[in-house]
Design goal:
The complex is a heterodimer of chains A (about 300) and B (about 240). Chain A has about 300 residues and is an alpha/beta fold. Chain A has helices at about 40-50, 70-75, 90-100, 110-120, 135-145, 165-175, 190-195, 215-225, 270-275, 290-300; strands spanning about 5-10, 15-25, 30-35, 55-60, 65, 75-80, 150-155, 180-185, 200-205, 205-215, 225-230, 245-255, 255-260, 280-290. Chain A folds into two domains: about 5-215, 3-Layer(aba) Sandwich (Rossmann fold); about 225-290, 2-Layer Sandwich (Alpha-Beta Plaits), CATH 3.30.70. Chain A is built from ten helices and 14 strands. With about 240 residues, chain B is an all-alpha fold. Chain B has one domain (about 1-240). Chain B contains twelve helices and no strands. Chain B has helices at about 1-15, 15-35, 40-45, 50-80, 80-85, 90-110, 115-125, 130-160, 165-185, 195-200, 205-210, 215-240. Classes of the chains: A alpha/beta (about 300), B mainly alpha (about 240). The interface of A and B includes residues 46 and 77 of A.
Chain lengths: ~300, ~240
């Protein structure tokens, strides 16, 4: 296992930012780390990089425990913090030299030009960091995180605040890096995770709500279906449909009904037959496909908002 | 440690900080020593460098907190501290790197004053009529004093992410540890009881003692203790980030 998280908890005062989190990441896997803002993604990542100490529990990266051997963990990790802090007054190359010297890399110049090539910084390599555009700053952030060729990459919202083109560039960069490294990357954008990751861990209010391969999560979606029906008649009693096999939930709003099924069976036929048997006229019926966004919303629904 | 050290040195001299610090120090010391008639060696009629050694702590009181205020406050406010503390570097390496970089910058400001020594040496009548031992002792004291101020200023910088707060706090702590104890000791309550002890807590007492050209291990030990205590405080504060 590349990264093992066991019962990780971080408490700030009376508030638990991360609460008993447990998951594992296999070598060579790209893990999407999802959650709404304030769910505890950043705190978890900071603990994995040994920036903050966990209140309880522990984690290990490449078999090094974050509590007992933080320096070895940091050696094996490439970390891109949220907001990507850089030394604005330094030159791009100067900065990379600094990072390379921290990691005691031999053949610094060779490695730096290799990294510049890899991250597409070529055009901007002689500039002062403060003058770089957001997309190039992000590339530089990635460059500093991979310069020592770490086994594990931890990227905290690497694509936030980028425009469409930059987004695509950075994503393909991450995808390429993921071919040989273990990548954990956080995001609150579901499509992005869908496009990049092998597996997703979703957390909400600091606790784990889902941990499964992306295609399984997808199947979970197709498994449930939502059918909306509008009847001509008013005062339709929802109870008459409750006997239909597979219906999990019936909701009524604005004169329409929404049936949701929990299993992978088509309930449209049964709804139609029941309606006919009860002398109801169906004006409209359609099936909504639940998508990743819905799953995400469903899993991270917070009672606080109600 | 060396990577942090060279990065800091690089930042000092690729920005204006380094040059401003060195020139402000040399100009102000130069004015007091050679130009202002109240304190000028030329009007004093004695071949000494006392002016340098009495004015320098005052200049350092403002200049050193101005150098050290950015050490951690800037890294914290910009978030780059997270960068440093997620790299394979220990707190000790980061703090020692910054400490030595600050010390080298201050030393660069101090070293050109060797020319003053040469000038006074040549101006003496007869040539060389100058208490070299006292001057060497004073230099040693001044280097140790500046290292202490740097440690104090760096400690102040860890307590906040605002550089102005770090500066004011640093300057206050330097002032307090340098002069305040001398004056507290003079309070009537302590006369003939604790006055000497209180005076010895302050930097000023030990600095003056070294200025006499006497390299007393107690004074040297005192300076190293001050440096150690404040650097230890710096490490402690940085280790307890949440």
């Amino acid at each position: 296992m590349s990264v093992i998280v066991q019962g990780l908890t971080k408490q700030y005062g009376s508030q638990k930012a991360v609460d008993n989190l447990t998951f594992e990441v296999r070598p060579g896997e790209i893990l999407g780390f999802l959650g709404p803002n304030g769910a505890g993604k950043t705190t978890t990542m900071k603990m994995l990089c040994c920036y903050t100490q966990p209140s309880e529990g522990t984690a290990s990266v490449c078999d090094y425990d974050i509590r007992t051997s933080p320096l070895m963990v940091r050696k094996n990790i490439g970390y891109l913090p949220e907001h990507n802090p850089l030394y604005d007054e330094m030159y791009v190359k100067e900065y990379l030299q600094f990072v390379a010297s921290i990691h005691k890399i031999e053949n610094k110049q060779g490695r730096i030009s290799e990294i510049i090539e890899m991250t597409g910084l070529g055009k901007e390599q002689n500039k002062i960091i403060g003058t770089l555009s957001k997309g190039y700053r992000q590339r530089l952030g990635l460059a500093q995180s991979i310069i020592h060729d770490p086994q594990v990459l931890i990227l905290d919202e690497p694509t936030s605040g980028l425009d469409m083109n930059q987004l695509i560039d950075i994503r393909s960069l991450i995808k390429n890096l993921g071919k040989e490294k273990t990548v954990i990357f956080s995001s609150h954008i579901m499509q992005e995770v869908q496009a990049l990751c092998d597996r997703v861990v979703i957390i909400n209010n600091g606790t784990l709500v889902a941990d499964e391969p992306i295609d399984k999560l997808g199947r979970r979606l197709t498994g449930s279906q939502i059918v909306s029906v509008i009847f001509e008649e008013q005062n339709v009693k929802p109870e008459i449909f409750s006997k239909i096999k597979g219906i999990a939930e019936i909701t009524q709003e604005n004169g329409g009904f929404t049936f949701s099924s929990s299993e992978e069976i088509d309930i449209r036929k049964e709804i139609f037959q029941t309606a006919v048997a009860n002398g109801l006229t169906i004006l409209e019926m359609h099936r909504d496909k639940a998508n990743m966004e819905d799953i995400f919303r469903q899993l991270t629904k917070s009672v606080d908002y109600v | 440690m060396f990577s942090v050290f060279s990065k800091e040195i690089h930042l000092f001299f690729s920005s204006l900080i380094g040059y401003i610090v060195i020139s402000v120090f040399l100009i102000s010391i130069g004015l007091f020593m050679w130009v202002f008639s109240d304190t000028s060696v030329l009007d004093y009629n004695f071949a000494t460098m006392d002016q340098l050694f009495s004015i320098a702590p005052l200049v350092f009181l403002f200049l050193i907190p101005a150098i050290t205020m950015r050490s951690f406050a800037e890294e914290k406010s910009k978030g780059t501290i997270e960068f440093l503390y997620t790299k394979p570097l220990t707190s000790f390496e980061i703090i020692a790197g910054k400490f030595f970089a600050n010390f080298v910058l201050v030393s660069f400001a101090l070293l050109p004053t060797a020319i003053y020594y040469y000038s006074v040496y040549q101006l003496g009548s007869p040539v060389g009529n100058l208490d070299t031992g006292a001057i060497l002792g004073s230099y040693a004291g001044l280097f140790l004093l500046s290292a202490s101020f740097i440690a104090i200023g760096m400690f102040a910088s860890t307590l906040t992410d605002n550089q102005i707060v770090a500066f004011v706090l640093g300057a206050f702590l330097c002032f307090f540890f340098h002069w305040a104890f001398t004056y507290i000791a003079r309070m009537p309550v302590f006369t003939t009881t604790l006055d000497l002890f209180i005076q010895k807590i302050g930097i000023n007492y030990h600095y003056n003692s070294m200025s006499k050209g006497l390299l007393d291990t107690r004074d040297i030990l005192y300076f190293f203790s001050v440096i150690f205590v404040f650097l230890f405080g710096t490490v402690t504060v940085m280790e307890n980030r949440s």
